[in-house]
Each structure stands twice: as C-alpha cells, then as structure tokens.
Amino acid sequence: MTYMVAMLLTLFLAVCIGFARLSQAQSLAECQALTDHYLEKHHKEASPYTGSNLLYFLHVPRTAGRTFQSCLLKMGVPPALRCPKAYDHLRITNMSKPNCYLLSSHDDFSVVSMLPPDVAVLTQLRDPVDRFLSAYEFAVEVASRSLKRPRNYRRRVGRIATEDVWPWSYLVPFFAQDLQAKVPAAQAKVLPPGGVWSEMENKTGAYFFNRVTNQTKESLTEAEAAQGILPMLDSYDNELVMSLKDFAKHPIASELLHNGATFQVLGITNYSHWGDAGGFRACLLRYDHLRSQMLEVAKNRVQRFTHVGTTDRLHESAAAALVSMGLSVNSAAYSGGDEEVAGRRGVGVQHRQSGNGNAGPGGGDRAAVDDLSNRGLNSEAAAKLQLLAKLIREARRRLQNSQKELVDAQKSDSDPSIVKMLQDKVDSARNELIDAQERLASVRETLPANLGGAERADIGVSDLSVGHAARRRLLHEDAGASQQQQQQQQGSGTATGTADGATGAAGTTEGTAEGLGTADEMAEQRRRLASKVTLQTVDAFGYQLDLEYRKIPNTNVGMEFVRCANRAQERSTSRRDQSLAVLRTADGRHVTFSKATRRRIPQEVLDLIRSYNTMDTALHKVGLSLLDQRIAEQKAENLYQEVPKEEADPSLVARRMQRMQAARAGGKASGDELR
Ligand SMILES: *[C@@H]1O[C@H](CO)[C@@H](O)[C@H](O)[C@H]1NC(C)=O
Ligand SMILES: *[C@@H]1O[C@H](CO)[C@@H](O)[C@H](O)[C@H]1NC(C)=O
Ligand SMILES: *[C@@H]1O[C@H](CO)[C@@H](O)[C@H](O)[C@H]1NC(C)=O
Ligand SMILES: *[C@@H]1O[C@H](CO)[C@@H](O)[C@H](O)[C@H]1NC(C)=O
C-alpha cells in the first residue's frame, strides 16, 4: 500500500517536473521576445562566393552530405586550400581570416557568426521523410555494432567515432540502450524441436528458412506450410528495436531530427551556439504563426547560399555546385588525406610527420601499425578520446547555459554589474570549451597518423596543431566584434525582404537581414558571380599555393565524383548489411534495410513522420526550385555540364551491372545508401 502511494507520488512529481520543463519559455509574450531577440541577433547572412572567401558547407545529417563533402568538395579543392575537418568541433585557427577556404561541419547556422564576415555557404537538403528513415536506419545500424563487434574488429585510435559526432552522440547511445534491453530476450526464445519456417528475403527474392534444421527452401510442401510460417520480419516494427513509429513520436526525434534542416538553417538546433535555441524551438512547436514566420526566414536565407542542392538529385546538385564554386566537371581532381590541409604556414602543404615515421594516409608501415595496435594501447587511447569528446560536449552545454543566462539578464534589463558578472561567466565557459578542445586535439597529435580513431567513423577526422593563444584571442575578438556589430544594427533597424517567388510562397518576412534583394536581383548577382569566381593562388599569408600537389592525372572532378560516390555507396551498403546481421530473432529472421523494406512501411507511419516535418517539407521544396533555377541560369551562361553517367573503372562498372541485373531479376532494388 505504502509502496503504491510512493509510486503515485513519484509519478506525480515526475509529471510536475516534466511540465515545468515544457512550459519553460512558452508563454506567447516570452516567445515573442525570443523571436525578436533571434531576429535582432541572427542577422548575419551568407555572402556570395568570390573564390577568395571561406566556403562553409552546412552539412545537414543524412543528406548524402558526406559524399558531397568527400567526393565533390574535397576532390575539387586542392589540399592546400582545405580547412582541417571540423565534425567534432570547429578547428579554424584564425577566425578573422582563416588561412583556408573550405570548411565542413554539422554545426548549424549559428556558427556563421563565428566565421569571417564574408563567409559563403553551401548546403544540401532532402525530403524530410527520406531523411528521417535514413537517420533511423543509420542510428540502428551503428548501435547494432555496439552489440557485438565483428571478430576482426579493432578500434582505430585517433579518428573521431560516429558516436562523437552530433546528433549521433545522442542517437547511437539511445538505440544501443534499447537494443541491449531487447535483443538478448528476443534471441532467448525457445523454438519447437523441428524448428519453424520463416519467410526471408534477400536481393534475389523471397525464400523460406528453418533455423533449427538450418534448411533453406524456395517453396514449402503443404505439410510444411501447415505447421505455420512466420511472416517476414518487419524491419521497422519488431521485438528487437524501438519501432520507427514509436521513434517518430519520441521526444528525442523532435529534439534532434524533425524539422532538423530548417532548424539548422536557422541556427537553432540542439547543437546551436545560441543558448536559447531549445526554448525557441519549443516556441515554434507551440505557435503556428511563429513557425510560419521563421520558415520564411529560412527560405530567404537559403536563397543567399552559394549552392543549395537536394539529395534526390545528387548528380545534378554536384554539377551545379561545381559551377557555383567557379569550377566545372572538367576541372582538376585532387586526392589527399585530411591531414594535408591548409594552415601550415609556408608553401603548399607538407607531409604529416607522425611519431613513428609513417607515410601519409593509406600508406604506412604495416608492421609498425600492428605493433602499436595491440589491443591494450588502442582501447586505452580510444577510451581517453571518448572521455575528452564527452568533456567537450559538457563544456559546450555549460557555455550554452551561461549564454542563456546572459541573454535573459540583458532582456530583463538587469543591473549592469550582474550583466558583467554573467558576461565573465560566458567568457570563462568559452575558455573551458576551448581548453577541452585543445586537450582532445593534443591527445590526437600524440597518436601515430595511421592509428585512426575509435570506430572507423562515418566521419573521419584529422588533427592539426593549433595556436592555442592565437585562437583564444581571436575567438574573443570575434565575440567582441559581433557584439559591436549587433549594437550598430539595433539602431538601424531591419529591412523587409521579399520571399521566394519561385515556390509560390509570396509574401514578406519581417526582420530578415537587411539588404536582402528580390529574387531577380539575386539571380542576376549569381549570374555575374558564377562566371567571375577566381580561385586563390596564394594563401592568407601571401605564400604561393602549390596547386599541383596531389592533383590526380588524366581525370577530372566530374569523373572522380561519380566514381567516389559509387564506391562510397557500395561500401556503406556492405557495411550496413554486416552490422545488421546481429539484429536477429531466435528463428533466424533479421533486420535489413533497403528500398524494398522501405516500400513496405505503412502509409500511416509515413504520414505521421510527414506531419512532424512541415517546415522541412516546405524548405525542401524551396531547395528543389532553387536547384532548377540555378541550373537554368548556368545553362543560359553555357556553364552547366552534367557529371558523367558512369564511372570509368571497368571492374566497378561490371560489378554494378551484375548487381543491377540481379536486382531486376528479383524485382528488388538495392538499398538507398545516400547518406
Ligand atoms: C589571422 O589573419 C590575419 C589576416 O591575414 C592576420 O593579420 C593575423 O596575423 C592572423 N592571426 C594569426 C594568429 O595567425
Ligand atoms: C538468396 O537466397 C537464396 C536461397 O537461399 C539463394 O539461393 C540465393 O543465392 C541468395 N541470393 C543472394 C544474392 O544472396
Ligand atoms: C547451415 O548451413 C550452411 C550451408 O547451407 C552452412 O554454411 C552453415 O555452416 C550451417 N550452419 C550451421 C549452424 O550448421
Ligand atoms: C540535446 O538533445 C539531447 C537528447 O535529447 C539532450 O539530452 C540535450 O540536453 C540537448 N541539448 C541541448 C543543448 O538542448
């Protein structure tokens, strides 16, 4: 009895706490104030690309952004111009004028205020239902690896793990926990002595399998069928893992995925540098009119991007992006690992000198690697890296919280001494974050180049020694500068911009950046710029860049893009199938993800996902029409050329043909591997 009362009390308390959290910053007045604050503060917009300013790739997770980044942007840009990878944290060494021209990360638009004033932005958008399915599948896949590592698995130290990269840093542990609770129970079920027949499916088609007798059959006799056949496992709704439908309804999906592209363009994701982003997202969920208002801000914002492509039209997007970057499919292609990047003072780039004298990426002394990768050392280093990445996340959260406190105090006209105190708190939180980042960078520095990071992650990361004091100073200068700018802006008020006519979403948006021209003016400006982009030949210090370094002979970026994208797709398909093989019930049926499995998802579930993603659905439409518009402009200028239809490598072509034939024979297509 007392137990019951205690239970009820606990429940009641939990509900109260939940409410308190939900109702935070949700009154209309407060939401209006947050909106005003947002519009005031987040006025910086993307600049046109000229060839000598920084190009930032705003990488929305699950938009094939990894392919876009490593097969297109990276291959088209000489190593000497690339910034160090920044997926775990920003690694720009000189914020005021970074000595590199291409930066990519999963940060949201709030990071743009930390980048140089004339930063240009690229992005890829995707239909939100596809993006959500892809995110679910990827999180389940990566989490399933934690369940049972393959026999030959070795942790690679010095690369960042998928689990270190937002939003996987939350989603992978979430699913890993779910799997750990469910999979062992599902596998412990006892089967009848003769076993049961289950319907299975592979790329060739459907068949029957009996796990106990270990038999496979194309068809069953009437007697066999009479014993009952287990239907094909529903990969999105089964006893092994949280169903797609439940995940779509779960708060973590709203926090990290639903409308995620729009939130990223607005700079208000869960990973935002703005401390009030969480409260502001809650406001948007609650008030329709604020949601429409901010959607218009996002639509206007992407029009200023140097490139907006879509995942469903990846090849056209790649071709259009090249033109926007002042390149063409016939431009040179470059190889070169992530350690060969700009920022090393001097001519061109140098080979990385690692501790034990290994050569660059991919090369290296096998024996030395084996010697060093004995389990103890590796897992110890991996654990250390993971801990440091966690400290960064925590420091980031503290910075966000203190920024929020400061903003609250400023909004409520608090005593100047309190504001000053909170400003100091923000500064020291920022220093803590930088310290944590430096510590991670320096631990990586001590590791041999070829002993990469924890898991061979979705996103590999290299390291670069950074000027600690310099970066710290510049971060502060930057913060100061943006405050000044903000104060100036407050006096001048904000202009009214015209919304995107091309999508029929006419109307005006208040409070977007000043000087935002009409769609026609912007198109005209892009036309002028597209034929005028001239790429850098000297670095920020005036040194000649070595543009021949790592150039791949007898090929071009269009050909290399197609080849690299196909290879990436094949690799991730086979890796996914391997990983998912452990998600198996006692009767032997297992989770698989492919176009065929996606086609069987009930419409009701797809509609549910769609209903959570109205902003992203609208933004994706804008992306499609922007892509059409820009391709038309580029064609009018005779600048647009398609990427090659097929890759040049005959063995790969042959293998793909085989697979396509097999797929046709079984009426099945291979899985959607666009990341
Ligand atoms: C950053 O870049 C600017 C402009 O090139 C330069 O004046 C400054 O010295 C650089 N700072 C550092 C720390 O390298
Ligand atoms: C699919 O399964 C059937 C029956 O086990 C088998 O004959 C066929 O080779 C398999 N196909 C593939 C592509 O694995
Ligand atoms: C089941 O049969 C396959 C061949 O059809 C064989 O490769 C496999 O080792 C068998 N597994 C067990 C557990 O007997
Ligand atoms: C981001 O989302 C995760 C998972 O829901 C949550 O634990 C975390 O507190 C969120 N962080 C911020 C800054 O909102």
UniProtKB/TrEMBL annotation:
UniProt KW Coiled coil keyword: yes
Keyword presence, Oxidoreductase: no
Protein name per the record: Sulfotransferase domain-containing protein
InterPro entries hit by this protein: Heparan_SO4-6-sulfoTrfase, P-loop_NTPase
GO molecular function terms noted in the UniProt entry: heparan sulfate 6-sulfotransferase activity
Entry's transmembrane regions: none
Location relative to the cell: Membrane
Assigned GO CC terms: membrane
Native organism taxonomy: Eukaryota, Viridiplantae, Chlorophyta, core chlorophytes, Chlorophyceae
